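Re: weekly structure request thread

Next one in the queue (318 aa):
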Amino acid sequence: MIPRDILKKIRQIEIRTNRIVTETLAGQYHSVFKGQGMNFDEVREYQPGDDVRAIDWNVTARMNHPFIKKFVEERELTVMLLVDVSGSGLFGSRERSKRELAAEIASVLAFSAIRNNDKVGLILFTDAVEKFIPPRKGRKHVLRVIREVLFFEPQRRGTDLNVALDFLMHVTPHRAVAVLISDFIGSPAVPQNEHGRALRPQKMLLESLLQASFHLLKQVNRRHDLVAVQITDRFEQELPALGRLVLKDAETGELIELDTGDARRRSIFAERQARAQAETARLFRAAGIDAIQLRTDQPYAGELARFFETRERRRLHG
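Done, posted below.
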């Protein structure tokens, strides 16, 4: 029996993300993600303007006037959600953590998928694959996916993209849409504020895991349609001025003391994070992977819609 407070949280996310799917992303999912190919639909009489390359010469010869083959896109897709549940996901400087935002993004994509009669699967990972839910259809299945992303308790706390990507290649032999949701941070520290919420530490360096995973990312993107969603927080870009803090790394347990009241130190940190973020974006581009960054303290529906629009324009004109 699922506890009532968990059911309430899942229901809240379902209502909120369903509204976003309906009002903001309606139709975009269908146009952005390609089917697996073209299926033969029917033979019909040739009409002026039809592509002559589609003429069915056997039927044309029998009927003594031209007929063409009509094809439709095979729409059924498999959407695999690869969600990072390592220790750094506990951080959130506002009302929600990165893990909670990851659950909402997964929910939006999952509900979009089942509206188009697609299958949804889930891989939860840290520096090991923690849980695998095979692709299925239906609302009940999507609600389970949301529950696992929100409330699954991992056995490990580190991060390794390679283990998740390699697992995907083994369990998904046919082309799929693969959405990698992570902060792409290797070992952040997570302090807490007076309300018990996690605050980001000094060791908040954006230690991109992409360099170590670069070749496998390219390989996965060749077989599947890989999209990267980077979940971040404002305090991962700039340190808050909170004075002297003792911070604990959420993935390694390392303790560090830091004076966040030092304006020069905060400036150096912000510059370093900006460079690291630019390098992360460059690596995604070099791997040919579409990527979007979403923050815990900002609305994500509009950003997601613009990302889909840009991706669709590139697909039509590319």
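The beta strands are 37-45, 67-74, 78-84, 119-125, 129-136, 177-182, 225-232, 244-248, 255-259, 290-295. The two ends are 50 Å apart (CA to CA).
Next request, please.
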